[in-house]
Amino acid sequence: MEDILCAVEPQKALFGLSDINFENVQLGEEIPVYETYNNSLVPSELHIVPILLDGEVISLFYIMQSENEWIVQLGKGLVSKIKAYANNSPFAIIYTSEGAYVFTNGEYYLIAESDCNEQTKLDPTSVSSLGNKQF
Fold first, then answer.
1. Which pLDDT score is estimated for 129?
2. Handedness of CA 80, 129, 70, 119 (dihedral sign)
3. How many other β-carbons are positioned within 10 Å of the β-carbon of residue 4?
């Protein structure tokens, strides 16, 4: 992961990070990510790792294995929405056919809508024992 972070620095303007001093950047702990499958929550194959600047999340690495290769994307689109709901509380990310939710303090909040037509109702009582990550 550190190698990927180093590869981002020379192209940081492409990722909206041109004003960031990478000497102060580090990787945070992986955020718990779940998805719905057959009306149940299961750990996701997607891994999300925050990029921190002076302890504050500035962007997210999205990592997934596809067959024999790893796919890594970098984005900061969800950072402000996660911060708005998690507000330094433990949280997890949950993906459903409706979109992505942040689960924190016993509540879940839609932070990104999906283009899928199928609707899945998420029952907050089913996620009360999830591992949570402080943001």
1. 45
2. negative
3. 14
